[in-house]
Structures are given as C-alpha cells and as structure tokens.
C-alpha cells in the first residue's frame, strides 16, 4: 500500500477564521484579552491544549483545560451557525483526491482536530469514504510526535518508503521526519514555504492540482 497522509486544517479545509474566532471567544469568556490572530494561526495543527499552552505559557494546567473547553464550546457554536462556511474546502481538493486515488494511492488523515471534529468536517463535505485511516490528536500523541504516522502505517500496512505526509505546517514536516517518511508542504496554508522547507519538506505544492504529481515524484514516480 502507498499511503498519502494528509493534514486537515490549512491543508484540506480553510478553518483559520473559525479557529481564530473560537480562540478569541474562549479568551474573552475567561476574562482575558484575545490572543494575537497570527499566533493562533501559527499554532494550527498542534493538539488543542498544546496550542493553548504556547499561547499562554504561564497558564496552569487546570486553566489551560478550562480554556480548551471554552474553545470547543465556541467552535461548535460557530460551526453550527455557519455550516460549510466555517471550514470550506480549498479549491481543487476533490479533483486532486480523486486523481490520487486513480493513481493507486490510498489516502489518510493525520490532524490536530478531535476525532469528533474531523468526522463532522468529512461528513459535511461528503468525504467520509475517501480515507482509509483517520488519525487524530485525541486518540494518541499529537504533532510533531510521529505517533499518528506509526498508527496509520500499522492500520494500513504501509512501509516508510511508501508513506508521504502532506501538510501546511512545520509540525507536519517535523512529524514526517521523526517517523522516517517523506514530507510535502503546501503553500496555501498557515506556515511559509521557507519554514516548511527548513522543517524538512522535500517538495512544495503551490496548488492542489500540483499535489498528485508531487506525491508520485516523491514516491519515485511509480504508478
């Protein structure tokens, strides 16, 4: 099996507006001034409590957990009221996923989202049957730990040479490198191309229609 393990936020869906809005609402509900939106976007892809801990480095564990709960409440309210608009697919996603499947590649997801949150996104966009493995940060160790890659490989039987991680964040690239698999960065997400390359990206895709060939090239071009 040749496995393409895709990030969700910033790679499949553009969720930055919903994430920044929910984080601001959580901070305000806790009596804090909202965090810098740029810093919030920079931490997308990390597990929620890890991201909050970086935004509030002096926060105690109980308070970080409280903020995480407030964030989840705000995010689900945002998602309920705005439906697709809160987490739209990036242009070209469906076509590129279909092209990769037609090339004999199996697709999976490794995300900082919760499993419940990921399922909600996939169901809303009609993508539940597209992926053979779903790895989330609430079911094991989150990025940049390689645990999600190892779990996906165990589930699918994919070897390191047959596995590619695709994502928009340095955490995705670092996870891939720690797992001993190839990484492809995407330029339409929340981290810069320079940072992705510095973190270990072997290739950069600037549009979704470039991604299928980039994956095949990194895997050796075999169809």
**CATH fold title of the largest domain:** Rossmann fold
Using the 3D structure, state the CATH architecture of the largest domain.
3-Layer(aba) Sandwich
Task: Give the oligomeric state.
Answer: single chain
- Spatial strand arrangement across the major sheet: 3-2-1-4-5-6
CATH superfamily placement of the largest domain: HAD superfamily/HAD-like
Rg: 17 Å
- Tell me about the largest β-sheet: 6 strands, parallel
Encode the helix/strand succession as letters.
EHHHHHEHEHEHEHEH
CATH class category of the largest domain? Alpha Beta
Residues in helix, % = 40-55%
- Count of helices? 10
How many β-strand stretches? 6
Shape descriptor reads globular
Q: Name the average pLDDT.
A: 92
N-to-C CA distance: 12 Å
Overall structural domain count: 2
Structural class: alpha/beta
What does this structure look like?
The chain is α/β, with parallel strands linked by helices and 223 residues long. The protein folds into two domains: 3-14 and 89-218, HAD superfamily/HAD-like (Rossmann fold); 16-85, Orthogonal Bundle (DNA polymerase, domain 1). Helices cover 47% and strands 12% of the residues. It is built from ten helices and six strands. The protein has helices spanning 16-29, 37-42, 48-55, 61-82, 93-102, 115-124, 147-156, 170-179, 193-198, 211-218, and strands at residues 3-6, 106-111, 133-136, 163-167, 182-186, 203-205. Strands 3-2-1-4-5-6 form a six-stranded parallel β-sheet, with helices on both faces. α1 packs across α4 (61-82), α3 (48-55) crosses α4 and α5 packs parallel to α10 (211-218). The chain is globular and about 55 Å long. The mean pLDDT is 92.
